[in-house]
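Minutes, project check-in
Item: structure for the 193-residue chain
Input as provided by the requester:
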Amino acid sequence: MSAQALPFFTPEQYLQIDRAAERKSEYLDGHIYAMAGGSRTHAYLEGAVIRELGQALVDRGCLVVPSDLKVRISERGPYFYPDVTVICGKAQPAGESDIVTNPTLILEVLSKSTEAFDRGEKFAQYRKIESLKEYVLVSQTEPRIETFVRSEQGGWTFTEFAGLDAVWRLASVDCDFPLAAIYKGIEFDEHAG
């Protein structure tokens, strides 16, 4: 018995389908992947990050955007919906107003169902974006935030901030945040996601 071939979609077909759909989907290598709904903890953390970043960057020429904006890696895709995108300077849309190509910082809240992809293939794709200076992963199961900062030479430096007493440093936008502010009121769930 042979395996059934998965349908292949062009980027144009994906965009048409995604814009008409009730739920968001991402696009990679000709395939469309429906996005799963997030947990309460995921939503709380995304909101806390947006609140803290928004307040810190309000007068710095940077936009803090929730997961409603697609990031396009190249003209042929992939297209992703990061949990939080920060764009410093003028946003460079890709045709329609729901796509941007020049994020400065991308943040993903980790869940069990997406963690391997967020750390692996998705980060590999994000690294192709010339404007991207920092990639951030936020844990739902403990107060821990990991950052990857692009160096002048193009490599990436990893730093982990763990524990409620830690101060999270975002080098790309020159900001510091106590993890206690991000994780305030969060009930950790080791089964999150």
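Outcome recorded: The first strand starts at residue 25 and ends at 28.
No further action items on this chain.
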